Amino acid sequence: MVTNLTYLFQDKKRGQRIDVDYDEYKIDINYLNQISKKYSLEFYADIKNRKYKNYSELFVSTRDDKSGTISTTLTMQLSKDLRLKLKALYNRNHSNQKVFSYKKYTLSMGIVKTF
């Protein structure tokens, strides 16, 4: 299991865009379990808070986003150097500026070849 605490900031060098400057705090957890010789299961979750620094005249506020991600991945060993990966992911972003709020569901499958 791995847990990270992250602080990130971004400042523009020039220009008028108000969606560039922000401070972000995030905590994430990644857990991986080798269920058997053939199967492994991974769980990931994060919570993030991003506060923008510039005031928006259009929205009459300073943007503040709170988001989270949850995913689970099942990996199956097909052969010595070939794996099948199945992943289900859910993202949600809540913003005080409603147009930036969303929910997203993603399912993906892939073949991984190792050398």
Into which percent range does the helicity of residues fall? under 10%
| Main sheet summary | 6 strands, antiparallel
| Number of discrete helical segments | 0
- β-sheet strand percentage: over 45%
What overall form do the CA principal axes indicate? elongated
What would the average pLDDT be, to the nearest integer?
Answer: 96
Class from secondary-structure proportions: mainly beta
Question: How would you name the oligomeric state of the polypeptide chains in this document?
Answer: single chain
What does this 3D model show about the protein?
The chain is mainly β and 115 residues long. Helices cover 0% and strands 74% of the residues. It has a 6-stranded antiparallel sheet, with no helix packed on it. A hairpin with a 2-residue loop joins strand 4 and strand 5.
Blueprint (SSEs and pairs):
Blueprint: E1 2-10, E2 22-34, E3 39-56, E4 61-79, E5 82-95, E6 102-113
Antiparallel strand pairs: 1-2, 2-3, 3-4, 4-5, 5-6
Describe this structure in a few short sentences:
With 115 residues, this protein is mainly β. It contains no helices and six strands.
What key attributes describe this structure?
single chain, 115 residues, mainly beta, six-stranded antiparallel beta sheet, 6 strands, 0% helix
